[in-house]
Amino acid sequence: MTNSKIVLAAALVAGASAFAPVQQQGVSTALFNGLGAGGMADTRDPDAFAHDDPRKSISAAPSFEEYLKLRDSGGGAAPAAAAPAAAAPAVAAPAAAAPAAAVGGGGNVMGTLAGLEGPGQVWGAEGIAVGKEESDLKGYDNFGLFVARLESSGVAAELAGAGPFTIFAPVDSAIESYEKMFGPFDANVCKMHIVTGKVPTSQVSSATLSTLSGETLTYKRAVRKDFVNDIVIGEKTFGQYNDFPVDVECSNGLIHAISLSLAS
Description:
This protein is of the alpha+beta class. The protein contains nine helices and nine strands. It has a four-stranded mixed sheet with strand order 4-3-9-8. A hairpin with a 2-residue loop joins strand 8 and strand 9. The radius of gyration is 29 Å and the shape is elongated.
C-alpha cells in the first residue's frame, strides 16, 4: 500500500506541474548604439547624416521622384559606384530647368508667365478608356488662368513696375481647385502669391517672404523638400516630362511654379 501511495502522489505532482505557469524570459527591445534587438541598424531617425562615403549619407540620397527621373533617363543603368556623382545633378535639376522654360523670355514676369510651359501631365487611369498608356503625355499644366486673374483683378498693372518680384505661380489646375473649394481668386489672393524682392529657391529658406497682400509666407523643410505655406517648391513630376519650373528669370523678377494655391 505504501508503494502505491508514493506512486499516486508522484503522479499527482507531475500532473499539477503541467498546468503551472511557465516563466518567460523577457527580451528587451531597447536600442543600443543604433542597433535594434535583432541586431539590425535602426532606421527610424529621419535626420540627415553625413558620412565619409557619400553613398551612406542620407542627405545625398535622391528622393523617389528623382530616382524615377534618373531611371527613365537611363541614369539607373550606371554602375553603383558612380551613383553619388549622378545624385548631385539630380538634386539641382529644378534650377537647371529654369533656363529651358524661359526660352525666348527676358521679358517681365507677366509676359514670361503668359508663355511659360508648366509641368507635364500624364493620362493616368483615364487614359485606358481612350487607348492611351497611363504614362503617356496628356498635356501641360500652364499658367493661363493665373495670368487672367492677375489681369482681371488689376494686379497685373503693379507687376509692370521695376520690382523685383518673386511670383509663386499656381498652375491652371490649382486655380480651378481653389475656385471650386474657396471662391473667387481675387486681387488679395493674387497678391498673396507675389513676394517683394528677388528670392531664388536657394534662398527661400532664409529670406523673409513678405507678400503684396501684407502677409508673410511660412517656410519649412520636410522629407527632403522645401515647402512654403505647406506647398512644395520645385515639385517633380513622375516620368520623363517637365517638372514644375522654378527660378525662371524675368527682367523684373523670378517665377516659381506651384501645384496648389498658397491661400488654400
